Each structure stands twice: as C-alpha cells, then as structure tokens.
Amino acid sequence: MLAEEALLHGSFLLHYQPKIALDTGRRIGFEALLRLKKPDGSVIGPTAFSAAFDEPILSRRIGSHVLRCAVAQAKAWATAGVDFGHIAINVSSSQFIGLPGSPCLVDEILGATRSAGLSPRHIQVEVTEGVMLSEQGGDIGTQLEALRTAGFIVAFDDFGTGFASLVHLKEFSYDQIKIDGSFVRAMTGSSADHAIVKAIIDMAKALGKQVVAEGVETVAELHALRELGCNYGQGFLFGRPTSASDLRVLPD
Description:
252 residues; globular; 8-stranded mixed barrel; alpha/beta; 9 strands
C-alpha cells in the first residue's frame, strides 16, 4: 500500500502554509499539510493516499508521524530563534481511539511538546466535523477539553460544510472557527455566500471565538473579510504550502 510504504521509507513530509492576522498582515503561524514524495522527486497531495485514513491503525500511525514531524520542526525553528508563532496539525478520528500499549491523544501531544521543550502555544489542533460524526472516535469532547485545559488552541476546521455544524459547535470545545474556503472564494460574487461568512463571523464573536478564513486568494476577498472583522486568514494570497527549507521564516 502506498501509505504504508511511505511510512516505511520516510516518504511522507510536511508542507507549511502561513496563517496571517488580517488587521496587520503579520504572520501568526502555519498549518502543517501532509504530502508524499515519490521516488522521482515529485510531491503529491493527500487525495492520492486518502484511502489510508479509512484504516484506523494506519491512520493513527500517520497522525503520530505528522505530530512528530511538526514538533521537530517547531523545535528547530525555536532553537534557531525564529518567531514562527505556532504549527497547526489536523487530527483524525482514529487518533482519539485508545489502543493497548499506546498513549491517548492528549498524552501523546503533551509528551511530544514537553520532550521538545515547547509550549502548548507552539502547537495547535484542528478537528473537522467529519471527526465529530465518525463512530471511530472515543470520548472526543473530553479529550478536546483536556487539550484546551493544558493550553493548546483547538480549531473547528472546514466550518459550514457538515450536516450539524451548529450542534457540534455547541457540544464540543473550541477556540477558533475556520470558515471553509468554498464560502470565502464565493463571497465577493455571491450575496448569499457573503451573508453566510458574515453570519459565521458574527456568531463566533458572540461566542467569544476567533475566526480563520481558509482559501483566501484575492485582494477583494481580503478586503471583504477585513470589513467583516475576521481575525485571521490563510490561502494562496498569503502563500502556498511549501517545505520548511523553502519557507522564508526570518522577520520581515
């Protein structure tokens, strides 16, 4: 299997996409995105190995690999004196499952960051609604609350695309809401999508949550999000996902 071979041969790697404070334009962190390097040197995205995430044990192994790589990169930047903000990682439903002989997700994240001498502020956790709907996950709400209590920021990813986003927003514990890029990309040409983005931002403010807009690609979208009071953004307008070696991480 492609994913198993990638884990065995160390072919999985992380690319990093910057996250920006929309009011100042300052970079506040990165999202780590999984990629696979093929023998010919080309790099492919997760759609090529998405089937691996349907297998709980394999998916958990991949998630643990992503955590280790993100923590190692955060430590490298911190050691070099780079003010990188944070690295956000996506967590799958399989990672919430307790397996014999393996630490629970909370202990795994805490252990990895502490061993690297990092603060919880250096690593963020992003969870999609698909994880909430999955029957594979364990006591997700309790684990998310434990992460927040320990000082980690938890984000509700791809908000607005699921079947029960509002229900899960009420039932689970989050610090940030990430607006799905499909709404952001359509908002300047569609009054309906603009209204949806505005409603999400207003709701988040009322709940005391921060908002991240995904998929920001144009200056018009940036201006519209600023006018609505969106806190943060990420997308091709600010930078494409790229390897750590190709990133410009020194102060502007």
